[in-house]
Amino acid sequence: MVPEYCMEHWKEDWFFGYQCLNGSNPRMIQRCKELPGNFPVSGDMVQGSLAPRTTLDKELKVMGLHPCPGWPHGGLSANILEKFCEQVGKYLCILKCHYEHLIQLKSELGQTPGLDTPIFLPNDPPLAWLLAKIWVRHSEFQVFQLLSHLLRTHLLVEVFCVATLRQLPAVHPVYKLLAPHLRYTLEINCRGRTQLVSADGIFKRVVSTGGEGLLVLSQREYKVLTYRSLQPCWDFQQRGATTLKDYFYREHSLMLWDAIHSFVSGMISVYYQCDSDVVEDPELQTWIKDIAEEGFVDVPMFGLSNELKNKAELVTLLSVAIFTSTAQHAATNNGQFDWCAWVPNTPCTMRHPTPTDKDAVTMEMIMDSLPDVSQTCLEMAITWHLGRPQPDAVPLGQYPEQYFTEPQAQEVIDRFRKELKDIEEHILSQNQGLELPYLFLLPSRIENSITI
């Protein structure tokens, strides 16, 4: 249903804005109170896109605008495909709430103002405006696949996998709590390294940032990655995204975070009666030291202590691990075929440079810029393969291995399942009658671990 909807509506501004909220990369949008210095836009340029009797300054002061910030693609080595240098774009995109929808207000394809980096506006020639949006969506493909998906779920959870297997015995309650949520993650990450992001992998064959570019882009993200940004309640507050309308990803994420946090708190309370029990557990302290000093040692802004001082810190850390391996991975992974199947909506590569003359954009230029037939087929195939439900998937909250047999622990698990059932019913009820439903965070569709 979603791919067909994309094919019909991908050119519309409101749909572009919707994807910034609920698409494959819903954690990028943030609020701003002033325009960046490298985005020279005057009120007259955008007045036609604003509501009656308002101005750009008023929008900034009262409502705030919402940039889908350009990632630092500058300085990246573009991929070489079939002897042609693919194109890596930089962009800065500003959106605003307009009546019932979030719409794109303006885009700059490049982050250094100049004659060769014009600012694109909705009242520009239609084909120029369309190509500008395609370029933003192309950059979005690089960011969501490499950063939001691979780095911030797969590779991040791998740190917990390695530390848990190295430092905790199989009878430790934290090992038993995490084990179902780490199932197959190391295996799929090994396959990803050899088949997707290797020197001869899929990304090298079809993606603009394949090869050296993806490593540089990932390294830049690691430099700004923080522990707090992995906690939804803090993340939405920091991005100023707590009041955006129809932000289903936010609403469902917070419900799932609360359920997971409550579940983890209940389980930890069964085995740790007080804060001193956590402090005096040598295996647990060795485990957190491994995570902080081995797993995230090269992440300068991460902000995770190398010791656990109380139960609350342990509960939050475990909640981050479980939420990331379940709900967050589902939000970025499960819908990728839906948003990418109609390739012009989210192209994996662009074969021509960004336009420098709005009036010179033609349909022929757009077609020549988009992926060719073989690249299109490969993008569709890989996003289908990565986003499809797995035949042996275990849904969130189901524990067929039965690591815990204590009655108190079983009661906590039963409460967790009841909360997930209530969330499922709420989401299904909320989506009744919606022209475009958002079901990616339906608990029954969230896997218990990262397996693909």
Radius of gyration: 23 Å
Tell me the number of structural domains. 1
Largest sheet: 4 strands, antiparallel
Could you tell me the number of beta strands? 6
End-to-end C-alpha gap: 22 Å
CATH topology: Lipoxygenase-1, domain 5
CATH homologous superfamily annotation: Lipoxygenase-1, Domain 5
List the total number of helices.
18
Order of neighbouring strands in the sheet with most strands? 1-4-5-6
Parts with pLDDT < 50 across at least 5 consecutive residues: 69-73, 82-89
Kindly estimate the percentage of residues that lie in beta strands according to DSSP: 5-15%
Structural class: mainly alpha
Which sequence of SSEs, written as H and E, runs from N to C?
Answer: HHHHEEEEEEHHHHHHHHHHHHHH
- Average pLDDT works out at 88
Molecular shape: globular
At CATH level 2, the architecture is Up-down Bundle
GO molecular function: iron ion binding; oxidoreductase activity, acting on single donors with incorporation of molecular oxygen, incorporation of two atoms of oxygen
Protein name: Lipoxygenase domain-containing protein
Cofactor: Fe cation
Main location: cytoplasm
Task: Give the topology.
Layout: H1 2-9, H2 13-22, H3 43-46, H4 56-63, E1 66-68, E2 80-81, E3 84-85, E4 92-98, E5 101-108, E6 119-120, H5 126-167, H6 173-178, H7 185-195, H8 202-206, H9 212-224, H10 232-238, H11 248-271, H12 275-279, H13 282-295, H14 311-333, H15 336-340, H16 363-369, H17 373-387, H18 407-431
Helix pairs in contact: 5-9, 5-13, 5-14, 11-14, 11-18
